[in-house]
Amino acid sequence: MTGLARSSADLDPRRRRILFRCWHRGIREMDLMLGQFAEAEIADLCEADLDELERIMAEEDNDLIKWINGAEPVPERHQTALFTRIAALRPDFSLVTREPDGTAK
Question: In a 10 Å sphere around its CB, with 0-12 CB exposed, 13-18 middle and 19+ buried, how is residue 50 labelled?
Answer without folding.
Answer: middle
